[in-house]
Amino acid sequence: MASVHGAMPFLARRLTRTPGTATVTAAVAGVMVAVSSPSGIILLVPLLLTGAVIDAVVWRADRETVIGARVEIRYYLAGITLGILLFTVSLSVFSLEHLTPVLVLGTLAARVAGEVIGVALTGVWARGLRRAGVGDDRTGVSAYR
Description:
Elements (H helix, E strand, L loop, with lengths): L3 H13 L4 H16 L7 H15 L10 H22 L10 H31 L14
């Protein structure tokens, strides 16, 4: 469940193939979540981290003329990196009595697995949306231009 908010920036980046899209999407989502959640503005931290990591790892890989396994590997690398970084952010809310090796390793595994599943699902969604005419085609030209 923790990786649900990461799906939006991943999907936006996959559909537009434009550097910075994941960060902008995460910022917009962060503002919307922050005003409607009791946690408030602190939620911007993990959401902006999500967008920044996606854009940093994928940066220009999906602007190449050949879209394939190399780009997909970058998305999975971004998901794994994001899972590890978000796990380290979540450590700050753990109480000391809950910092057992089993709980810490389980949380790390769940964070990384959740992000990897999110990457896989957004890949499926993006391909389906592209077949429906939404987003960039294989040449990088938007269907809306």
